[in-house]
Amino acid sequence: MSTQTATPTGRAATGERSSLLKLYLGRGILAVAWALAFAGAHEDVDALAIILLVVYPLIDAVSSLLDHRATPDGSERRIIAFNGVLSTLAALAIGVAGAGGEAPVLHVFGAWAVISGAAQVIVGLRRRGPEFGKQWPTLISGGLSFLVGITYNIQAAGDHPSLDVLSVYATGGGVWFILQALLLGWKSRQLRLRTV
């Protein structure tokens, strides 16, 4: 039995690129919109703030589900499925942590950011190649998520934890997703021009 990852070619690759482009663009726009909403709604960890906190990892969970459905079988698809389950569990854990205030929320959000960021880096590395480009925005975004998640846990253990950083996190992630979508669009155009 072969363990080699199947690489999409021709029409399948074009379809997968198009699906990823739409997914990344939508994911990026939702992240920026969430950041704007959360920036004005988290003065206190009240019901609205907790709802928004729960929604953010659920956006990632739904994105992972859509990505999973469009990705061929293989280890990359399993990592995407893992990230979807992780994000769903993170949403539940953040909802529970919200009752304890800012520090528990930052701990849970930070732990999720670390693991999810690592998964994103692995998927980005597996997608590097002629069909999907170098995946730099995905790799940078995943790496930053990993590092920032560690700092959130350090901050949560300090005297003055603040949820202000989460709007910055979501904005940064959204911008990287949008940039990756634009690069995928450029890659698709380049490949089309070569086949004309």
Radius of gyration, Cα only, in angstroms? 18 Å
Q: Tell me the major beta sheet.
A: none
Mean pLDDT: 89
Helicity range: over 70%
Number of distinct helices: 6
Overall geometry: elongated
Assign the structural class, choosing from mainly alpha, mainly beta, alpha/beta, alpha+beta, or little secondary structure.
Answer: mainly alpha
Number of strands: 0
What low-confidence regions span 5 or more consecutive residues with pLDDT below 50? 1-8
Task: Quote the distance from N terminus to C terminus.
Answer: 37 Å
How would you describe this structure in keywords?
disordered N terminus, 196 residues, mainly alpha, single chain, elongated, 0% strand
Give structural notes.
By secondary structure, the chain is an all-alpha fold. Helix content is 80%, strand content 0%. The chain has six helices and no strands. The protein has helices at residues 10-39, 47-70, 75-97, 102-127, 136-156, 164-195. α1 (10-39) runs antiparallel to α6 (164-195), α2 runs antiparallel to α3 and α4 packs antiparallel against α5 (136-156). The protein is elongated. Mean pLDDT is 89; it is low at 1-8.
Could you give a quick summary of the protein structure above?
By secondary structure, this protein is mainly alpha-helical. 80% of the residues lie in helices and 0% in strands.
